[in-house]
Design goal:
Layout: H1 2-32, E1 40-41, E2 48-57, E3 64-67, H2 72-75, E4 79-82, E5 97-101, E6 105-106, E7 116-121, E8 124-127, E9 131-133, E10 137-142, E11 148-156, E12 159-168, E13 173-177, E14 187-192, E15 199-205, E16 210-212, E17 218-224, E18 227-235, E19 239-247, E20 252-254, E21 257-260
Parallel strand pairs: 1-6, 2-20, 2-21, 7-10, 9-15
Antiparallel strand pairs: 2-17, 3-4, 5-16, 5-18, 7-8, 10-13, 11-12, 11-14, 14-15, 18-19
The structure holds copper (II) ion.
């Protein structure tokens, strides 16, 4: 009897542990999909602003290339260039997103007329907006006569997490929310699993304080409530630069971000070992 009771107790402990395990496993995705930092729109009176440039120093990065080997009637022929950096003769960087990190309150988001739109045409991604609002709907149109597959990744450091991965027959469209799992990640990489030469980048903003640099590297962010903020400049190939800046009411603060080459310097060849001739007796 005692053995049976102990066995039953052991079984009930096992069952309880299994139930807890099931609850933990079921809850895990909820924990992983963290809510983005809360942002509240409010009236900003006599706000400050920041302006400056994104600059580059060092050996310039080279683009990547893939040869088009499939669906050449639609996609074209030759090599497709991607992960491009656009740097002027004066070392000014285009397409850098400068934003305020973790600002909790401020100006309203700009009016958004419908979902964000991404088109696939001639086997290339054409985002209508480079910067999109985190969590908003993205409508994807395949305008080609061949199938595509849109595979979106959230970039977290050196890792990448699939956001959604959807096959897309010729001429079709669908809509998906831009859901990121980590509260502070922003970079989104777009790829097509059917055409390995299709690549693009987007940036998911969690507040409206951002600016994309123009061909001369310029950015400008206005209507900032006075205070001290962390400003981040992000580029898909060259990473991030950060700076804390104090913003004063009604005043503009100048700051430029300088990105450095990620190329590793070639190691110097080891110095030749001198061998001394043996002394002659
Ligand atoms: Cu494709």
């Amino acid at each position: 009897m005692t053995t049976i009771r102990k066995h039953r107790q052991a079984l009930s402990v096992c069952s309880a542990a299994r139930i807890i395990l099931v609850i933990v496993v079921a809850a895990a995705p909820l924990v992983l999909v963290a809510a983005p930092p809360a942002y509240t729109a409010a009236t900003v009176e006599n706000g400050g602003s920041v302006s400056g440039k994104a600059l580059f120093t060092g050996e310039r990065p080279e683009s990547k290339f893939k040869t088009i080997t499939k669906d050449v009637e639609t996609c074209g022929e030759g090599d497709r260039e991607f992960d491009i950096t656009t740097i002027s003769d004066d070392n000014e960087m285009k397409d850098v997103v400068v934003y305020i990190a973790k600002i909790k309150e401020g100006k309203s988001w700009p009016e958004q007329d419908g979902p964000y739109v991404l088109e696939q045409e001639k086997c290339a991604f054409h985002p209508k907006d480079y910067v999109v609002r985190r969590g908003a709907e993205l409508q994807v149109f395949n305008k080609d006569k061949v199938s595509h597959n849109i595979h979106t990744y959230e970039i977290v450091g050196r890792a990448r997490i699939t956001m959604f991965n959807s096959g897309q027959p010729a001429g079709s469209d669908f809509s998906k929310p831009l859901t990121l799992r980590r509260p502070n990640s922003h970079a989104i990489k777009l790829e097509c699993d059917l055409h390995n030469f299709m690549h693009a980048w987007m940036f998911a903003a969690d507040n409206p304080y951002y600016s994309v640099t123009t061909a001369d590297g310029s950015f400008s962010i206005a209507d900032i409530p006075p205070g001290k903020y962390k400003f981040v400049a992000w580029h898909p190939v060259l990473g991030e630069q950060k700076k804390f800046l104090e913003i004063a009411a009604g005043e503009n603060t100048e700051h430029s971000f300088t990105f450095k080459s990620k190329k590793k310097k070639k190691k110097k060849a080891p110095a030749a070992v001198k061998t001394e001739a043996p002394e002659q007796p």
